[in-house]
Write a structure and sequence with these properties.
Blueprint (H helix, E strand, L loop, with lengths): L5 E5 L5 E6 L5 E5 L2 H19 L3 H9 L6 H14 L5 H8 L4 E6 L8 H13 L3 E6 L4 H13 L5 E3 L10 H5 L4 E4 L8 E7 H14 L5 E5 L5 H16 L6 E4 L4 H12 L7 E4 L2 H13 L9 E6 L12 E4 L2 H17 L7 E5 L1 E3 L17
Parallel strand pairs: 4-5, 4-6, 6-7, 7-8, 8-14, 9-10, 9-11, 11-12, 12-13
Antiparallel strand pairs: 1-2, 2-3, 13-15
Length: 380
């Protein structure tokens, strides 16, 4: 057998590397400095353990928050950690344990204000347990979504929460095939390696419909989210069914993307119809805020002429003018529940997921008022 060729190179930090070409033809890089780095880390951890008067295992448990440790012992370890300015070497830990400390979180659009509270809840739960979060953004693009799935697989994440309806189970199947547990939002029922969190939009929607009925509204319109988004379809169907059942069958049902300009364009189409509604239900708060802007530009007063209701209760909803009446989604709780669902799945022998439910509610602000009695004139 021919000897394996090798070449040497030096990193800027002086670490000596050996490039070895294996039988597969792939280049494997081995660092001769890794032993030094691991010895240095172990020596520092031993110093922490010696100063705190505990074992190396106890130091590891405190740093990784993996088992119960008394507050007194934890305090001594953390004091020693600060004294030695000790930091965990996550790369060495991954080599030693064969596992990463990463959990994945997949969202659709980083600029969408729906997601920050989900991220906050999810990340807080992960950090409290000594884990990090890899956030991936699909931008509603199928090819980018495929790249996201590959990235998560390559990163050897422990579990992934997918909180965008733009990713379905088929698209994420390579993760479950690799034994990585997933939690979806508003998807199919749970199974092996798959959990599901269902947001009960019907509760908040029914309260919103009762609210406008009490205000005397009889003509409604619906501007829903995208037709290829399963959550948007769920919301649209619940709105149309609920409004029709209460005698407010929508004069029109439109679809748009989840952006302010789309809401503005959709409401202009609503105003072009012969019969102008007194109440407009929107598929999310961004659509609603765009709709209110376009109504104002057309000389239509909100809420005196047309009332508007959104969904999500994003941070900007109460800053809108007028402040937006909306159906609140517990997004931070969604992030917390997603991580808890993954953590529970990982600790079960068969890794079977569970089904969870979060309830919505109505937040009444200033964008809804009693229905107008006069005909409405719209500026062209």
């Amino acid at each position: 057998m021919k000897p394996v060729p090798e070449t040497r190179s030096t990193l800027s930090e002086g670490a000596d590397l050996v490039k070895q070409r294996g039988l597969s033809g792939k280049v494997v890089i081995v660092s001769h400095s890794s032993r030094y780095e691991n010895d240095n880390m172990a020596h520092t951890m031993r110093e922490v353990a010696r100063r705190a008067g505990v074992s190396l295992a106890t130091v590891s448990r405190v740093l990784n928050n993996t088992q119960y440790i008394s507050e007194e012992t934890r305090r001594r370890v953390l004091d020693a950690v600060r004294e030695f300015n000790y930091f965990k070497n996550v790369h060495a830990r991954r080599l030693a344990t064969g596992r990463s400390d990463l959990f994945g979180l997949v969202i659709s659009e980083i600029a969408n204000p729906f997601f920050p509270e989900i991220i906050r809840g999810y990340q807080a739960m992960a950090w409290n347990r000594g884990f990090d979060v890899l956030i991936c953004n699909t931008e509603y693009d199928r090819e980018r979504t495929k790249a996201v799935m590959r990235k998560l697989r390559e990163s050897d994440v422990r579990g992934v929460a997918i909180v965008t309806s733009s990713v379905d189970r088929i698209m994420a199947s390579e993760l479950t095939a690799a034994g990585i547990p997933l939690v979806f939002c508003n998807s199919d029922p749970a199974g092996k390696l798959v959990g599901n969190i269902c947001i009960e939009y019907e509760h908040g929607i029914n309260k919103a419909i009762q609210h406008v009925v009490d205000l005397g509204h009889r003509r409604s319109a619906v501007i829903a989210g995208p037709a290829d988004n399963r959550t948007a379809v769920t919301i649209k169907n619940a709105l149309v069914y609920g409004l029709t059942a209460r005698g407010l069958k929508p004069v029109c049902v439109l679809e748009s993307n989840y952006r302010v300009d789309a809401g503005a364009a959709a409401v202009r189409e609503v105003l072009s119809r012969p019969e102008i509604p007194t109440i407009v239900f929107c598929g999310n708060d961004l659509i609603a805020m765009g709709a209110m802007t376009a109504l104002e530009e057309s000389g239509v007063r909100v809420p005196e002429d047309v009332s508007v209701i959104g969904i999500d209760d994003i941070f900007f909803a109460f800053l809108a003018r007028p402040p937006l009446t909306t159906i609140s989604v517990p997004r931070e709780q969604l992030g917390v529940k997603a991580f808890e669902a993954l953590d529970r799945m990982l600790n079960l022998k068969r890794h079977k997921g569970s089904n969870y439910t979060l309830e919505t509610d109505l937040v009444v602000r200033k964008s809804t008022a009693p229905a107008r009695l006069q005909s409405l004139k719209v500026n062209s």
